[in-house]
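Progress narrative, Year 2. Work on Glucosamine kinase GspK from Paraburkholderia sediminicola advanced from sequence curation to structure prediction during this period.
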Amino acid sequence: MNKDLFLIGIDGGGTGTRVVLGDAQGRELAQAASGPSGLGLGVDRAWQAIGAGCVEAFTRAGESLDWARCVLGCGLAGVNNRDWLAAFRAQAPAVAGLAVESDVYTTLLGAHGGAQGVVVALGTGSQAAVLDGNGDCRTAGGFGYPSGDEASGAWLGLRAIVYAQQALDGRVPNDDLAQALLAHTGAHDSDSLVVWLCEANQTAYARLAPIVIAHRTHPFAARLLGEAGLEVGKMIAALDPSASLPVALCGGLGAPLREYVPQIYQARLREPLADSAHGGLQLAQREAARIDG
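Result:
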């Protein structure tokens, strides 16, 4: 393998981007973070965020970024849209190598170290995946905001804001949960909330999820989190009907939602070995080996 290469693992979602920089052997040199790079927010924005994160990682490692010496393994939200994926590849800088998969696939690689298992990735969006004994990857969910991505941050936020809407016109109490949601949006009446709603995207809704979790004992929040747990269970059951594989809940909402997953799955839950960005680094290693022949 070319020892002058750098391997870069990218985890790109709707809330942020994480970068892991490694040497040609995959030894970690530095990590960095930047803004969102999920393809649903735009390909230009995705490459800007990835570029910024890579510059920061190289700076922390005391190296200079030279795309021609870089092999990227990208796990990105939105790659199941073929048009977005094609545009992303077309706008790539002149890198030594580029492998692009869904963020749930790199989450799977990181969580189980390439071994068999199930992951449910729970961040701004959501998707579950399984790696079976034949090395095949299958997925469940991931149809995207606003109709899919069950149990994700955007899914929770989209439903939580309904409570705030109803509090403003007296359909539900204007209590601590409603006030916390309205304070986050900056809205003080129906008209100002409508302005926020008209501008909100999946990232904005996902930022409401921590408020729901912070108010987990509130009847509305508790019911919503319980529904999220049921959705996670449905994804696990769809991918592993034999109920025999380990399951890792990953992403920023993995730990907070763990207690809401139905009891029949609790004994199979495992902590992920590594995150999606490190799974991206594994993907970059594979791509480098393929290039090397």
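The chain has a mean pLDDT of 94. Residues 122 and 171 are 31 Å apart (CA to CA).
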